[in-house]
Amino acid sequence: MSTSRYWAVVALVMIVGLSFIGSPFDEQLPLQHIPTAVALGLFLVLSKRYPLSRASFICLVGFLLVHTLGARYVYSNVPYDEWATAIFGQSISETFGWTRNHYDRFVHFFYGIFFFIPSREILIRYMAIPQKRADYFAIEFVMASSAVYELIEWMLTITVAPEVAETYNGQQGDMWDSQKDIVLATLGAVLTLVFVRFLASRKLRKTA
Question: Could you count the other beta carbons within 10 Å of the beta carbon of residue 133?
Fold first, then answer.
């Protein structure tokens, strides 16, 4: 791992630690950051043997940052309306007519965006899968991993105290919450694929 990446990981760990300071949900934070710890551990173990490009590294760090912000407020309570009101004089929910906190939707959408590129790179670089096929499998990975995460949330729901499960899952009364989360992650991956192919075609036109 390069020096810049090492310090980026150190900074990320510090940000995760700072998210515990003054959090209104101290009891929930350890549960929220189990995925963070698993992701960082896997990255540190695998990055030595399977180094990734700068773009993939930035994507992974970017996702962990938006997740850390959500974890501090257990997702359903991220005060983006208060922030928007302080800056623009009107809340986002008022502008779009929302009746729930949508930060969890935002993170699932960005999961698709941020994980498409690393998944695609691993398939092409380390599994020797042709590019077009890797594009398809990367989208499939985002969709499948999102479904697995929703299954983990379901298992959590039936094994821990109801109030803990409700706070962690953040369904906010939406019976289709899991399905919407999977769709948003898949949409993020598809849009990233479209953007990547647009950049590739633009590069080809310039070199032609």
Answer: 11
* Parent domain of 18: 3-207
Q: pLDDT tens-digit profile of 187-200?
A: 999 999 999 998 88
The per-residue DSSP string of 19-34 comes to TTTT-TTTTTHHHHTH
DSSP 37-100: HHHHHHHHHHHTTS---HHHHHHHHHHHHHHHHHHHTTTTT--HHHHHHHHHSS-HHHHHT--S
Contact 59, 117 (CB under 8 A): yes
Return the closest-CA partner of residue 12 out of 44, 40, 31: 40
What is the tally of structural domains in the chain? 1
Tokens for 208? Answer: 């032609």
Q: How far apart are CA 191 and CA 112, in angstroms?
A: 9
The two tokens of residue 71 are 């974890």
Q: What is the pTM of this model?
A: 0.86
Cβ-contact 19, 66 below 8 angstroms: no
Q: How far is residue 70's CA from residue 109's CA, in Å, rounded to a whole number?
A: 13
Confidence of residue 85 (pLDDT cuts 50, 70, 90): very high
Other residues' Cβ atoms within 10 Å of the Cβ of residue 14:
10
One-letter amino acid at 163 equals: E
